[in-house]
Give the backbone structure.
Amino acid sequence: MGRSLKKGPFIDTHLLEKVEVMNRGADKKVIKTWSRRSTIVPEMVGHTLAVHNGKKFIPVYITENMVGHKLGEFAPTRLFKGHTTKVSEKAATAAPGPGAQAGGGAGGGGGAKPAGAGGAS
């Protein structure tokens, strides 16, 4: 559900004031902000805002296509590492350790016994 048109877009006043001061002075500094809930307005276009994602500040360069969206949409808070598959799980558990040898045990070569050799030696 969106915000009422009568109210207009929500922008934290301290953030809007900083952007307006930079527009008057034609500055292009990075503005740090924790205000992920603020809507991007046309006055912000061309500025870089460092939006906090809960851990660090993500630099977001504001373009015209971003107007109307929230700042938090461009600073993800979660890191998706992908789904695991059963094949990759089997490969991880079946892979030999770093000290294992590929061919049988220790000793002199050969792997299979001759066909006539029984169990008794």
Q: What stands out?
A: The radius of gyration is 31 Å.
